[in-house]
Predict the structure.
Amino acid sequence: MARFCLLTRDTLVSIFATDLTSWRNHQKNVLRDAHMPIDNDITFRKLTVFTTFMEKENIARTGEALGLSSVSVHRALHSLEDEIRCPLFTHKGRNLVALPAAHTLLKYATEAMDAIARGLEETRRAGGFGLGRLRIGTLYSLTLETVPQLIMGMKLRRPEVELDLTMGSNQALLTMLDDGTLDAILISISESEIDRSHLEVLPLFEDDICLAAPASVALDNSAPADLRDFSDQKFVSLAEGFATYAGFQEAFHIAGFEPHIVMRVNDIFSMLSLVQAGVGMTLMPGRMKKVYGNDVQLLKLAQPYQMRQLIAIVFPRNREHDPNLLALAAEGRMYALRRGEGG
């Protein structure tokens, strides 16, 4: 006997609403699966194991190629299946055989890993890290001996690296290092505030500051120079920001008078050419004597005015593992050792 059930309007609405809710939930699940976010546990390490296995087609050979145990390889492949929520392999005896889904994943995994590798390379290139070029900044005075020796040593260590050299003042070089225009700088750290929490400092040598006068001027070489004896002389100076500038100002402040500066210049060679021509006296680092010793007289300063510059290589601490900077630092240590042994 057939039975009929009379459905009220409210019952029909309730059934329809329930079905509609179920349908909507189903659609949400479909969309979720279609746009499933990448699981955090899907790592490049696991994808590397996967792509290597697809190439070797054997767990033992995959482990050997990657330096992993067979258990680790199997675990990585199994967890990858779980995280993708899709079977990738089937067992044939004791062997794993790739399913069509594995070949699809291989195509996209290879592309993704290649893209990331290119991206990392471009990122390092943008940051100037480990490239075939090293941008070095230096004080003008260090181009006579220190920089050429470091460059020759670098060429022996890393002959493929191209070296770019920029000359400037202490202040300008520190600014260029800070904004990433330079990779490393050679400066005097005696006159500069160095943030050692962000910068690596490799000392090379110390140098005395001396009084420099034209060869034609009669000087008493029997005693150190007392700057007070030269208060009536004309002087030439480097511009503000250079390594010797702060020491120049401090020395004359101690001497108790303002020097008569007839010219300020932006490089030490121009300054010493002016001294050589008899325009005026100056203070300069002793390392310049090797070039101007015949035309410029150098006198050691008397004790109250004595100053020393500490010359160092400075580079960003977050790039201390850059192979180019490692080579520069190694060559710097060898140079410092040779200078120390030479007295």
